[in-house]
Amino acid sequence: MAGVPPITMRIGFWNVRGFNRPLNNGVAHLIKNNRLCLLGILETKLTTSAIARIINRTFPEWCQANNFDAIAGGRILIIWNPAIIDLYPKDISPQVIHCRVTNKSSQLSFYISFTYDLYSVVNRRSMWEKLLELGRPLNMPWIVLGDFNCIKSPAEKQLGVTPTWYELKDFANCCLALGLQDAQTTGCYYTWYSNSDSNPVWCKLDRVLLNNDWLEAGLHCTAHFNRRDASPTTLRVSFLF
Endonuclease/exonuclease/phosphatase domain location, by residue (predicted)? Predict the structure, then answer.
């Protein structure tokens, strides 16, 4: 409707590589400063009981879900503000947490999948299979976001060994089969750096993908990427009516 301001949601994800006590405050500041209502925290390296204590102490009014029982190492934790959104985890697996989200203000619903892929081509295949299983029956807007630990085209890697089609094809074919496209982005293109002066490598490992239903509904999503060792990725999701 002309003249009606968009309803916006702010979402983030952060590969923290160890959720220690100083980082608790960092996450709290991130949520407050960016007015986030939903945050995916990757690679916490904590147990279910430890996370429960942290959430109860630092985010007492927020809810959480994790996949710690599905894979060791505290891989994916999501926290959300139930005053702003209703979130229902629909499928929890070692590399994906798949949820249905409803914005309480607009009552618009969509699906969101937070991913943290494993390191080898073979081990990631179960993740591509899971996304195909989740995405094929959907007829609603869907966002897939997180650390994919791989690229889907040679242009997404700078320096280092040139990737082979064997390394790229699973990701590329999954996106093609599901109609997933990269969201509009700002900030860093290459989100990961090898931190090696003698053998520098830059890669785009973190991303936000949208399905055709999202695009056809006329919804908007812009993701701002920082290099993962600096600060997290934040999304501004707008619902226009």
Answer: 14-218
Q: What is the mean pLDDT of each run of 10 residues along the chain (241 residues)?
A: 63 78 70 90 83 85 92 88 96 96 91 92 94 95 93 90 90 96 90 81 92 90 74 57 36
Cross-strand pairs, 112:
99, 143
3-state secondary structure of 239: strand
Helices H, strands E: what count in the chain?
Answer: 5, 16
For 216, phi then psi, to 5°, come to -70, -25
Residues 37, 113, 68, CA angle at the centre, nearest 5°?
Answer: 90
Architecture of the CATH domain 7-239? 4-Layer Sandwich (3.60)
Residues 6+ apart with CB under 8 A from 112: 11, 38, 98, 99, 101, 142, 143, 144, 145
β-sheet bridge partners, residue 40: 13, 78
Segments making up each domain of the chain, as ranges: 7-239
Q: Is the dihedral of CA 74, 47, 59, 85 positive or negative?
A: positive
Q: Which helix (H) or strand (E) holds 166?
A: helix 165-178
* Report field, pTM of the whole predicted structure over 0.85: yes
H/E stretch holding 129: helix 121-135
SS3 state at 38 = strand
Task: Return the residue matching tokens 């009552």.
Answer: 107
Query: What 3-state class would DSSP assign to 231?
Result: coil
Q: Where are the beta strands (DSSP E) in the chain?
A: 7-15, 38-42, 63-66, 76-80, 85-92, 96-103, 109-116, 142-147, 157-158, 181-182, 184-187, 192-193, 202-203, 206-210, 220-225, 233-239
